[in-house]
Write a structure and sequence with these properties.
The chain is of the alpha+beta class. It has 8 helices and 9 strands.
Amino acid sequence: MDLRDAGLTENEQIVYTALIDLGPSLAGKISRKTGLHRRTVYDVTETLIQKGLLSYILDNNRRVFSAVNPQRIIDSLEEKKLTLMPVISDLTKRFESSKSKETTNFYRGKNGLKMVFESQLEYPEILILGANRQAYEKMPYYFKWFNERRKQKKVKIKLITTDKSINPKILAETRYLADKYADHMVINIYGNSVAMILWAKNPFAIVIEQQEFASGYRKYFDLLWKLARK
């Protein structure tokens, strides 16, 4: 479990999860449970109170801390999202008006690849050449989320793969090539973009946004689609 993705520091996560297990507790008890210095515990509880994740009562002039329902973390993220929406909307308009018609971007690591895949959800169809299991093995939880979002947004996929175990059912068509064509490289084609993804130990992607480039890869995909087997 890692709440740092929700904006908590490491010590905030330690104290919050400790209180989930302990229930209402004094700072000393939290200190013994977590191994953090009592002064650090007081500092961390203060920031967690400000974030709305802890509450306290006074018992003989001593603070007894309690964790609030973890659902509050989700609610807090939703509140931040609503607050940011007008800002993001304005920045998106400025980005779209200023960005080049032809771009090449490099992305490294799992977080970088998440950006690549999430951008694909803005298009009605994704063509995937060379789909393999490595993506699911390296990012299993993310791709469960991704496929749910894809279904919600009704984004269709067409896959060409050598792996007979890959056969998605919803909003998907799959065709197969011979095993000798298996490779670590996967190519996704969507809109005017082509993402070339290498599922190495530290995965990375090169995304080229250029209409003619994407059109050429789409024709190549269509040719292989006709040659591949159902």
